[in-house]
Amino acid sequence: MKTAVDAIFVGKDRAYNRRFQQMCGHYLVDPVACTPASGWEKGQVENQVGVIRRRFFVPRPKFKSYAELNAWLEDRCLAYAKANKHPELRDKTIWEVFEEERPSLVPYVGPFDGFHAVPASVSKTCLVRFDKNRYSVDARAVGRPVEIRAYAARLECWQDGQIVGQHERAFGRDKTIFDPLHYIPVLARKPGALRNGAPFKEWDLPLPIRRVWRKLERQPGGDRQMVDILAAVLTDGLDAVDAACAEALSHNVHSAGVVLNILARHREPPPPLTITTPDALKLACEPIADCNRYDSLRRQTDGTIRRNRCDGEAAALRNEGCL
Length: 323
Fold this sequence. Notes:
Blueprint: E1 2-6, H1 14-27, E2 30-34, H2 43-56, H3 66-83, H4 94-101, E3 116-120, E4 127-130, E5 133-136, E6 146-150, E7 154-159, E8 162-168, E9 176-177, H5 184-187, H6 193-196, H7 207-217, H8 222-236, H9 238-250, H10 256-266
Parallel strand pairs: 1-2, 5-9
Antiparallel strand pairs: 3-6, 4-5, 6-7, 7-8
């Protein structure tokens, strides 16, 4: 498939050119360069943009996210294709013609992993700056550079091949987006920050965890206990900690020791290791499990078997020489 692209987008930025070529290879698109600001060279493309704008975006709708916009636009396009005739095959709808052509189309291979990558440094407050906004990263990433990968709707921070921060992309300026889980290692050193720290002021925790938190706030050392409970979220997950807090409250207890004990009991044991026995250690004649030989310990001198007494089982006879 060929598509038109302004030549102004190609040239200086080698990283952009490389990603653009990867995107074309991903979707099997053959780009055709056009002169910048020369709409007549790709009139069909410009015309279709105007048609779609007038058909679906008048009056202009509003959406909270790109996902909501895409879902709405997909429904509108499907409804239009099923309700309107094909411009050339007037006896069929657009949807019917599309269904006939579907077997001949190239299969969809999934979305292209397209992002804008920039290096960034992590501040002492576990924040990185991108596009006039600040985003939190894992506290263990402080002091080393990270790579920010900016997508259309999200932002990822990578360090040493691992994601150390992931947020919905914020638009505007001077916004600070926190993930409270990034600051739990800091709370281990300063548990008092849990009360007034900026990352935790608007933390929307499940109700059982918030109830435990309120009870621990009134106790000496309660902040330290709450930090221990929240630290378990990093290893066991929020749902498991939520269930453990609910179970502890059902028994009228709320200490960190009880919650962590419940989590430990609910953890699934690791699968047993599968050991392959070498051929040199395999038995040529495996022993047979036969418990009848133990009856010889209970035999009388006349060959009869001693019965159990009313006050307990019969004691085993010794020195039979059978073992």
